Amino acid sequence: xxxxxxxxxxxxxxxxxxxxxxxxxxxxxxxxxxxxxxxxxxxxxxxxxxxxxxxxxxxxxxxxxxxxxxxxxxxxxxxxxxxxxxxxxxxxxxxxxxxxxxxxxxxxxxxxxxxxxxxxxxxxxxxxxxxxxxxxxxxxxxxxxxxxxxxxxxxxxxxxxxxxxxxxxxx
Length: 171
Known about the structure:
Number of strands: 13
Oligomer: single chain
Shape: elongated
Order of helices and strands: EEEEEEEEEEEEE
Strand order of the largest sheet: 1-2-3-4-5-6
Structural class: mainly beta
Strand content: 35-45%
Radius of gyration: 24 Å
Largest sheet: 6 strands, mixed
């Protein structure tokens, strides 16, 4: 070890620069990686390789993968990659949900909300979970509801409260 920090209490390393980005430069035989605070971007935390930022955490907390100025809490940009998937979530078995998107008012339990799971047999399932949950499909430039499925299995088109197994209305 060339550098070893040891303490019986909190240990830390400070890298400070008043004129340039404070950084750590990692060099291997095949690539150079930089970890730094980008002072030109309000001191965003950046991980960079081959001269390109790969991962950014903005000071406000937004995270970008493949994008330097994320416009959401998490933004992933493919950057012209030849990969066939932009994001892959893999679960170990059919019990957990591969993806759950919730709302902090409605989804008070971890698995409540919109869920996607792929079982061990390959059966893909889309769930709207929780008491009173329903599933709506919205379409259009300014999306409007086209189909709604209620907990009991009633499906409606043209209504958000279908009264039969298939309730089609032309309002």
